Amino acid sequence: MPRGRETGGNIGHFVDGRRQHFVDIYDDAMAHLPPFDAETDVPTAFGRVRVYRFGGPSQNTPVVLLPGRNASTPMWRANLAGWRARRTVYSLDLLGEAGMSVQTRPVTGAQDQARWLEEVLAGLDLRRVHLLGVSIGGWAAVNHAVRFPARVASLTLLDPVFTFARIPLRTLAVSAVMAIPGAPQRVRRWFLGWVSGGADVDDALPEARLIDAAMADFVLRLPPPRMVTDDQLRGLSPPVLAFLGGRSVMLDAHRAARRARTLVPHAQVQVYRDASHAINGEYADEIADHAHRFWDAVDS
């Protein structure tokens, strides 16, 4: 079976004839990243998960990156150099999303999401990790820590959805329309610009081309995430560092910050007033500096 091509049932798959278009854009975007020193396809009960290792100082607890919706490893172009300067970094292409991971079995809910990630970390023989996720990847990090806390040294969350605040109704409505196959490119680019705080989105940005291609070329078949509950947040044992965008269309940053600080007393929450949902690229240096201090403190 061709890599990345799955059809039928409740399994994510590329639109017929569109996989190579996505792969070409993916490969071009990967060329803009720092070189990785290992590429692995880790088997799980739900499919094979592509993992890249970006080598850094190995004496520190490694960082594992979980990207956002319709994104994959190339979305970290602005961040990898700063993070791997002091840590070994592993980046995953999420299972069931456009990327080089290959889903072979339906993912039915939050437990399945946590299970495949736990199987990846075990397959990589990573005893303890700092999980870092953006958007839906932030939800995935928390979801995993709720169910498999022993392996999670800390959580770093970049504008996480379904975690501290619900997605606004307008955004849900627009996202539902965008999920319909066949949306014109001009509409997809408008949506990406809107999510990115009104920024111009064009082919000059490899990660923008990648997400645009994912929206056009890949059919998602994942269940909608369930909002993280109050009890789950109260029960989080790993230290939490959260960065929220004051102009994010995916959440109300101040409401999210208030809930995080109330329910997760040990959480450190930073709201960047002018940041959008694309906070990882807009505040790459600030996030790297703060995250390294946080990870160093956790490790010590």
Offer a quick outline of the entry.
The chain is of the alpha/beta class and 300 residues long. The protein has helices spanning 19-30, 80-84, 110-123, 136-147, 169-178, 185-195, 206-217, 230-234, 253-263, 279-282, 284-299; strands at 13-14, 38-44, 47-54, 63-66, 89-92, 102-103, 129-134, 152-158, 218-219, 240-245, 268-272.
Describe this structure as you would to a colleague.
- By secondary structure, this protein is of the alpha/beta class.
- The protein has a single domain (13-299), classed as Alpha/Beta hydrolase fold, catalytic domain (Rossmann fold).
- The chain is built from eleven helices and eleven strands.
- The protein has helices at 19-30, 80-84, 110-123, 136-147, 169-178, 185-195, 206-217, 230-234, 253-263, 279-282, 284-299, and strands at residues 13-14, 38-44, 47-54, 63-66, 89-92, 102-103, 129-134, 152-158, 218-219, 240-245, 268-272.
- The strands form two sheets. Strands 2, 3, 4, 5, 6, 7, 8, 10 and 11 form a nine-stranded mixed sheet that branches. It has a two-stranded antiparallel ribbon with strand order 1-9.
- Strand 7 (129-134), helix 4 and strand 8 (152-158) form a beta-alpha-beta unit.
- Helix 1 (19-30) runs antiparallel to helix 7, helix 3 crosses helix 4 (136-147) and helix 6 (185-195) crosses helix 7.
- The longest helix has 16 residues, at 284-299.
- The protein is globular and about 50 Å long.
- Mean pLDDT is 93; it is low at 1-8.
Helix and strand pattern: EHEEEHEEHEHEHHHEHEHEHH
Question: What proportion of the residues is helical, as a percent range?
Answer: 25-40%
Number of continuous helical runs: 11
Radius of gyration, CA atoms, in whole angstroms: 18 Å
Strand content: 15-25%
Q: Terminal Cα separation, in Å?
A: 46 Å
Mean of the pLDDT scores?
93
Shape, per Cα inertia axes: globular
- Tell me the CATH topology: Rossmann fold
The secondary structure category is alpha/beta
What is the top-level CATH class? Alpha Beta
